[in-house]
Amino acid sequence: WASDSVCPLQLALCTSMSKRLLDEHAEPPEAKKPRQDDVNAAQHVYQPCALLPALSSKVNSLVEVLLPAKYLTSDLKSVKLRRLWGTDVYTDDSDLVAALVHTGHVKLKAAAPKLPLLVSLRVCPSQTSYSGSERNGLASRDWTKEHCSVSYKIERCLQHTAGSVPLPEMSLLRPGPSRQIPGSIFPQLAGPGQSFVVPMSAAQVVFNLSNEPCYKYSLSLIADQGTTPSRWTSGRLRREVIYLESRHRRFELALTSQKKGTDGHEYDVYSVSQVMRPFTMDRRAMEAAGVPLPAEHVKVMHAEVDWEELVWGPQFLRCRGVEYQLVRILFMPHTVASS
Fold it and tell me: Which domain of life, per UniProt (predicted)?
């Protein structure tokens, strides 16, 4: 071989070493992105008499559960057997369909609905005890012994259509740092002279205890309708009063005054009262007495209530640990008592 030539074996070794060095310093390949089918498969699917897997590792997190429509029937065995322990917060071995019935999210019928449900659960730590109660025709059970697992409560329940799991939304019924407008309200505008609208889904007229038309209670009628304070339901109460009815009682939710907080800013306080003799207090009688009603017409149940203390449910209002079942609702503007 000539002195200035390169041995073929040396050339092969140099080429191999150079390729190895390039491979070591090259950027790693991009990780494979999961397919949409894999994402959808990650959500849990309800099965009767089966525990949801791996809840203990998801405390304080949201878990999405797909509930097939075929299980939403009145002859479901787990509901008939009352496989449910607790109220609002249930043991993790409680049946999900029974919990939905107990909280009023669903009403089972003989025939299954067409669409499945997508249920958002908040995983909670184990409770010291679970108190049962009777709601919506279903009595949950007590559990006073130690529960060596986690609990859950229902955050929301929606009809599930084709597509990916929808993103969580903040409820407008508990004001927070950010507010969102329900999608069902976007295409609707208030009419002339009106500041709030009645969603079409909630426009169900019924008769109240004084045999006058009003609306059937719905969360859509309580939800805020905008991001500005003037479109909040709490702001609406500065010029109106909410009258809520159970099957035999009428309640008044009214703004009473303003208080100064520890930060120096004023905030509104409300009162929850029971209206006396509601069967004779029709609209004309209440307007004549003055809205909000004077002390001789109401019995105050809760005074100086902060709006944050009001928890609105699909069929109830909870205030300071007391729950009131609701079936009807009516907004009335402030009036001055006639002389």
Answer: Eukaryota
pLDDT in tens, 283-331: 999 999 999 999 999 999 999 999 989 988 888 999 988 999 999 999 9
238 and 255 Cβ atoms separated by less than 8 Å? yes
| 194 exposure class (CB count in 10 Å sphere: 0-12, 13-18, 19+) | exposed
Residue 45 reports pLDDT greater than 90:
no
Enter the tokens of residue 83.
Answer: 């496989």
Domain layout of the chain by residue ranges: 38-159, 197-333
User: Position 2: which residue type?
Assistant: A
- Note if the pTM is more than 0.70: no
Q: Which amino acid is at 174?
A: R
Please, are residues 156 and 120 in contact by the beta-carbon 8 Å criterion?
yes
For the chain, what percent of residues have pLDDT higher than 90?
A: 41
The number of beta carbons lying within 10 Å of the beta carbon of residue 67 is 21
- How far apart CA 197 and CA 151 sit, in angstroms, is 38
- C-beta separation of 86 from 135 below 8 A: no
| Cα–Cα distance for residue pair 197/218, rounded to 1 Å | 13
